[in-house]
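Async update (no meeting this week)

Hi team, since we skipped the sync, here's where things stand on the single-chain job. The sequence we agreed to prioritize is pasted below, unchanged from the tracker. I ran it this morning and attached the output directly underneath so nobody has to dig for it. Comments welcome in thread, and please keep replies under the output.
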Amino acid sequence: MLFEGKFTADAKAFDNRITQLFGIQYPIIQAGMIWASGWKLASAVSNAGGLGLIGAGSMYPETLREHIQKCKAATTKPFGVNLPLLYPDIDKHVAVIIEEKVPIVFTSAGNPKTWTAKFKEHGITVVHVVSSAKFAKKCQDAGVDAVVAEGFEAGGHNGREETTTLCLIPSVRDSITIPLIAAGGIATGRGMYAMMALGAEGVQMGSRFVCSPEASSNTAFKEAVVNAGEGDTIVTLKKLTPVRLIKNEFYKQVQQAEDNCLPAPELEHLLGRARAKKGMFEGDLNEGELEIGQISSIIKEIKPAGEIVLEVWNEFKQTAQNPFSY
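Output:
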């Protein structure tokens, strides 16, 4: 077997450093996406044997507290919070997470040294998201428990390195000794097997879980994802923060602005503060920002999150038993 870890005797779970670290059945993590990852999605994934994450990026501190409390009521399994470190009043989010005794935090978009020690003082497992081996090393030095290495195929905010997952995972694996989770362009058990063969010990999926009834994103957005084809997503806004989204009227406006070499402040004005909410939460497919990954081109249906977890797990298991069956 190419990957580290082993199936349990009854083949109903997998045992490796990721499942042990989080106390979960399968090394499958649901990404903490803005406007999609509320308590309903997180609890459904955790109840199915994976690790569900509440996406704090679109929540005020008290909204986050509400979602944590509802998630506790909906599952007895481990779950976590994804916390982008670039948001204002981040200390208030941190306080809520500590007060509510959240067991696991995935941090991103910032320096892991800033809050890792604080979280670990309170017994919280910390994972940080990176887009390069260089930053993976810095995370390890900062004391995080594991790293998510996210390739350029991913939806939403992307790394400036433009490294694909296929190249990123072996590079990061050779650079760190702590557990490694692969993200970006993964939506199937075959994709999971490929990442594990390259050195990952678990996978994080975002786009696939957007297309579930439990995701809080708008139904119109979910249907747009299902209908997206190859080449329908693109990374833009590279002068600000690179973001992968579905091409639409808003994207055309951004493209025209960038073609005309508008300065960053004018691009920020065009983006505004609520484009992502308008697109993904309110369902404005023309003027909204529709963040999703390249893997959307193979997602063809909306199905319950628990079914997604089991579908990915079963395909992973079958592929491990016969890698050349497809």
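Quick observations from my side:
The longest strand covers residues 79-84.
The radius of gyration is 19 Å.
Reply here if anything looks off.
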